[in-house]
Amino acid sequence: MSGSLSGKTPGGAAGGFLSFSALYLFIYYGFGAFSPLITQYYKAIHLTGTQIGMISAVAPIVSIIAQPMWGYICDRFQIRKTVLFGTLLASGLVGLMFSTVSTYAFVFVLYILLSFFQSAIIPISDSLALGYVKVNQLQFGDIRLWGAVGFALAAFLTGLLVERFGPSVLFYSYCLALITAMLFLMRLPVEVSESSRFTVSVFKGMKQLLRIPRFVLFLLASFCMFGAVNANNIWFSLYYQEIGGTVAGVGLAFLLFAGSEAPFMKLVGYFVRRWGLETTLLLAATFSAIRWFWYSSAPSTTAVLILFFIQGISVGFYLATAAQFVRENTPASLQVTALAVFFSVGSGLGTMLCNLLAGWIKDEFSTLAIYLFFGAVTTLGLIPLCVIKFGPWKQARQEQESGATL
């Protein structure tokens, strides 16, 4: 039955591709409705800059704890689709609850709860999609680009709705998008990997992962790269208004930024085949550092919009290849755990640090100084990427993989 969580989708590979694409479209539509515009809600309920920074920082802390737990549950019991279904539903309902509160304490508690469920969504959906594209000999970027499309559309359309009806509308958009994503999740084909079960301890698994030099170096790089990228989603709204933009312009900017990721994700397969994963990742991180330093110089809003494609080169390339790098450099039995650890470090620890320091920098200096800080952090992330590319472990992947299976 196609509507069940374990049923096969009619249409074979083509049906699976469409279902995965729609899943990513609506998951990221929800995120695009929430993240870029949440500061408008914070302003509407009169939170201070310090309070905004604390809320933004506590969510990654929860993710650091929760993501390995979700990864262990999925790897141990092989119920990825079931867990993803439950966390999509819970995340949507918790998001809806934000529209009923207006005090810092309640927002703080709800954000912790939201982060607990939300932390499972990306690692599990990426794991499912990566397994699917491997079996069907497809490119992960061809599916992931629909996430960029969804994020871009949501930021623009929800921005218009927020300007007309108020910030509470973003929570309704978020909830509706995740519930719609659940419908397409139910249509995904059966996973080959779910026919076998692994009995792996989460602590043993993490210990095994941390013995892989390329994986550890990549964690350090992503700590810096994703920390700045995710923090930008929170602070860009205030930054854009500081350099002369409007709230409606924020939605347009995110439409262009996130929209530019899709074509570059489509192109990433060509770059990976021509230059390899390591070079593509290094190129993306370099462009990202340049972007943040440029933002700190207070360019005009027109220039920021005209050069929107820099996000496609930096974030689009990195997002489309990061999960692939993790998969190719970790044991098959620890795929979800590896992705969960990866997201915990990048989207967790990195984002926590960047948001905490960004809040302090804004109070002590300015929003422009936040982007100078983002540029410096991302530049530090180039160092482990260079070691991966040119260091002693650049050809060690095959040996590590074979050794991990012993």
From TrEMBL:
- Please indicate which superkingdom the organism of origin belongs to: Bacteria
Where are its TM segments located?
Answer: 12-31, 51-70, 82-102, 108-133, 145-165, 171-190, 211-231, 243-263, 275-294, 306-326, 338-361, 367-388
- Limits of the Major facilitator superfamily (MFS) profile domain: 16-393
Question: Pfam families, from UniProt?
Answer: MFS_1_like (PF12832)
What protein name applies here?
MFS transporter
* Bilayer disposition of the protein: Multi-pass membrane protein
Cellular localisation: Cell membrane
Read off the lineage from the record: Bacteria, Bacillati, Bacillota, Bacilli, Bacillales
